[in-house]
Amino acid sequence: MPAEPLSRPRIVAAAIDLIEREGADAVSMRRIAADLGVGVMSLYNHVPNKAALLDAVAETVLSGIEFTDDPDADWTDRVRMQARAFRQIAHHYPRCTMVVVSRQLQSTAGLLPVERALATLRSAGFGGEEAVRILRMFIAYIVGSLLREVGVTPTFAPVHNTQADFERVDPALFPEINVLAAELSSCDHEAEFEFGMELLVQAIAVRREHGNEREKK
Amino acid sequence: MPAEPLSRPRIVAAAIDLIEREGADAVSMRRIAADLGVGVMSLYNHVPNKAALLDAVAETVLSGIEFTDDPDADWTDRVRMQARAFRQIAHHYPRCTMVVVSRQLQSTAGLLPVERALATLRSAGFGGEEAVRILRMFIAYIVGSLLREVGVTPTFAPVHNTQADFERVDPALFPEINVLAAELSSCDHEAEFEFGMELLVQAIAVRREHGNEREKK
DNA sequence: ATTGACGGACGTACACCGTACGTGCCACGC
DNA sequence: GCGTGGCACGTACGGTGTACGTCCGTCAAT
After folding, report:
1. The nucleotide closest to B40 (CA, C1' atoms)
2. Less Cβ around it within 10 Å: N or C end of chain A?
3. What are the tens digits of pLDDT across the range B26-50?
4. Count of CB atoms situated within 10 Å of the CB of A16
């Protein structure tokens, strides 16, 4: 007597749960079925195959982005907020992040963030082509940042101090690394992310100014 | 009569070859052994397990970066060159790129690029901590860019035009996407990469100016 | 020269994986 | 009453990573 009749959302939720608990490697159709107390092949009545299931996982995680867009705020603040929203879901589903960025999703799941971002950039005065370029640049930076974050803490396990690794390098061959061993081994991801984001925001801000000046001329 | 006696580099080379020919999904110990004309378990005399083999693949690919660093050039040009060198290996081993960025490598393989980059930034006048932050930002951007490039062309197969996908969205729900469908569906990766890199270079250039001014004050 | 140890190539075996296919149950429209 | 279609499920097949045991060539010590 299954209280709930095994639907696609339930399967996806179980998959996300499993990934967060035991990592992406632990995912198998048998394991998900066992967690749901269900036969393995029953899953295939709702999901065509494992790849599609993982796509659905990515889609679901991505659609969990919460936008608190304030149309009255400065456009730079809106850009900042949207970038942070992107990063926050990665903190909510840390183990799933690798799954999300690994599979390129050509579905409509990530479309709402794209729409919002483009609208913000257009309202800031950027042209269409330029807005797309800027958006792609931001996405690249965000994805790369998240990849490092989840890579360095794949299990949130004891972050075995890699400091020793950096201090063990040959000072003659790698003088800079040797001097900066402390800075290289520690990493405040939040501050790091904000630093890069601020640089990007200011870069496109000055680019907008130049564009406006050129228009006036 | 094995002409060459099956060494670890030979195994890694076979793995890279296989990945480039048939994609990362085709990699299996049995398949690699077959390509080498060798029994499966013989591989384990040189490689502890499959994960270590893939780590070695990442390490080997990464160590193939060619640096043509010109110490006399402007520091911005040196940064540009190093970023491009990073991207070029991804073009040389397109299918391996996902493997490289997927596994976080804490080995000494990627250390030389790090050393060069830090030296360049330090010589440009950046402080130690700031140089590390800037380097991390660049790496995030580059990794994110490469991930999009290899994601969009996982097999270099016919890039089934996703234009239709963008044009099919509801214009009422996604007006910006609808208007910019053409820009979103086409992507000149090279130009896109250069655009973002230029923005980053100029951003840190103005940051350096501000820092210098503050020092003078 | 004989022997012993040893490293590497290999086959077998096991647990697990994704999933194609067939079977049975149950709720429904006629 | 009777199809009929959807859904849960079991079985089975080909593939995977790898632990373990076996065999054999080489080389050091006796």
Report:
1. C10
2. N
3. 999 999 999 999 999 999 999 999 9
4. 21
| Model ipTM value | 0.88
Cα dihedral A80, A142, B149, B26, rounded to 10, equals -150
Residue A31 neighbours by CB under 8 Å, 6+ apart: A18
CA of A114 to C1' of D16 (A): 39
CATH number of A75-216: 1.10.357.10
Contacts of A97 (CB under 8 A, 6+ apart): A61, A90, A146, A147, A149, A150
A67: which DSSP letter?
Answer: P
Is residue B9 packed enough to be buried (19+ CB in 10 Å), middle (13-18) or exposed (0-12)?
exposed
Would you state the structure tokens that stand for residue A59, as one six-digit string? 């889609």
In eight-state DSSP terms, residue A49 is -
Closest residue in B to A194 (Cα–Cα)? B137
The pLDDT > 90 percentage for chain B reads 53
Spell out the SS3 assignment of B70-119.
Answer: CCCCCHHHHHHHHHHHHHHHHHHCHHHHHHHHHCCCCCCCCHHHHHHHHH
**Burial (CB count <10 Å: 0-12, 13-18, 19+), residue B151:** middle
How far apart are the two ends of chain B, measured CA to CA in Å? 75
- Class in CATH terms, B8-47: mainly alpha
Domain-wise residue ranges, chain A: 8-47, 75-216
Q: Which residues of A touch B145 (CB under 8 A)?
A: 140, 144
Task: Indicate the DSSP class of residue B153.
Answer: -
Per-residue tokens: B125: 């006048």
